[in-house]
Design goal:
2 domains; mainly beta; 39% strand; Immunoglobulin-like; five-stranded mixed sheet
């Protein structure tokens, strides 16, 4: 393909993409292009409409250099309104390695192999017209991730262009680094004006009676490259339980604490302090403190 032909192909593909997207339909939502050794890649699609959509109206196309290559038609499967479907060569691998996977939303099918050092994920309609394209690369992951294997890229907003690099980010460590068939941990819909950490209660009673046995910590953040260490300290200032250690957070999420120390033993009744240390890649740090009490009958 010469230079003029390549440019024309890209322009035509862009026009087709705008037309297809204007009509509404499935969109790219999450991509795992670098699985851990022996595990499977996956591509997640999302249906943002109020109607069910048949998956066999779409195909995945391999992108080679500057042109479209092999077509991979998708099997029949109904994707519900505002719901997800995960495409993979090995459904059992996805379910075994990520929590909460809803197997009825995982479809085994033929897919291209996605290079670890970068490539393109192309979603097209049944006629081969490109609907969305993501040019991915390892550089789109958090720079603080030492090992990117097994970490998916999640789309932050369906309102922003698919192929906008800043619209994708590493799935949070607090959700296991990927969210197949589940809402994305890095969704822009959950951005807040500031970091907010709310406790379900200021009391935890780890006696197994079903009442306040556990404490829930809900959070929302205004950025998606924030790391956290969270520890519980006793009234004397001694750490008694580490909940997170330099973990990459999503823009929203929840953590639980069962009122027990690092050894698994219920803590003594008394006052405790939850200390949340946050930091980002720019060196900005923030410390949040929450007082709570452990109550034993």
């Amino acid at each position: 393909m010469n230079g003029k032909t390549a440019i024309a192909a890209v322009v035509l593909m862009g026009v087709a993409t705008m037309v297809a997207r204007a009509q509404g339909g499935l969109v790219l939502n999450e991509v795992l292009f670098q699985p851990r050794s022996g595990e499977a890649e996956f591509v997640e699609l999302y249906n943002p409409t109020a109607e069910a959509i048949s998956l066999d109206n779409y195909m995945i196309i391999r992108w080679i250099g500057d042109s479209l290559g092999t077509r991979y038609p998708l099997p029949s499967h109904a994707v519900g309104p505002r719901d997800y479907v995960v495409l993979t060569k090995d459904a059992a691998s996805v379910a075994a390695n990520y929590g909460g996977v809803q197997l009825q939303k995982v479809v085994e099918c033929r897919l291209p192999t996605y290079p670890n050092d970068g490539g393109a994920v192309v979603l097209a309609d049944a006629a081969g017209r490109v609907v969305e394209r993501l040019d991915y690369s390892p550089a789109m992951h958090s720079r603080l991730l030492r090992n990117k294997a097994g970490v998916s890229l999640e789309r932050r907003s369906h309102e922003r262009p698919c192929n906008e690099a800043t619209n994708w980010f590493s799935a949070a460590s607090t959700v296991g680094y990927a969210t197949p068939t589940l809402p994305n941990s890095q969704s822009a819909e959950y951005l807040a004006e500031e970091a907010r950490f709310a406790l379900s209660s200021d009391i935890v009673s780890p006696d197994g009676d079903g009442y306040q046995d556990d404490l829930t910590i809900d959070y929302t953040l205004d950025a998606n490259d924030i790391y956290a260490s969270i520890e519980v300290y006793d009234a004397s200032g001694h750490p008694v339980r580490r909940l997170l250690n330099n973990a990459l957070l999503g823009t929203h999420g929840s953590l639980g604490w069962d009122g027990r120390g690092d050894g698994g033993k219920a803590l003594k009744q008394g006052r405790y302090i939850l200390i949340i240390n946050l930091y980002d890649l720019n060196g900005t740090r923030q410390t949040i403190r929450r007082a709570l009490a452990v109550v034993n009958p």
